[in-house]
Write a structure and sequence with these properties.
This protein is α+β, with helices and mostly antiparallel strands. 38% of the residues lie in helices and 30% in strands.
Amino acid sequence: MLNFKNEKGSITLFVLVSCMFFIASVTCVHMYMQSKQVSVNREYRQIKANYEANMADTNSLKEAYYQLSQIKNLNIMLEKTTYQNNQLIVEFTLNNTENIEVKTAKYGWGTNTSIDTVTEWNYIESGSVNDKMIAVYNHAATTGDYHLFVVIDNQEFYQKITI
């Protein structure tokens, strides 16, 4: 049994520590909410500035939409596939590239039909996307299936190649 007459100040100390813990918790939550509000306001201002800048020039919005719709109509056409010295060499072209400004173009080889299996990307110069392009896989076997992925301005294309 506890003898509270001998425990001088223990209840007061317990209450004081509890109050300080509560105040610290409330202060931390307040600081978190305040920093979250600041970041949301900053993001809102950036989105608003981008929107207002784009709305000032509606022709550029129409042009950007037209470019995106044209990229959706692209497709890959295989020209020639050759195998020599453990290299698989694939020549391909992109159809429907007229009036399209390509910003990024790259290709990679995957181990199956998922683009997530590509470990290394090879970038293509943006000026040469209207010409024949060559994709090379250096460690090819004499037979098998290979998975070529081409990404043009975030539009993904897949082609299965069998030797």
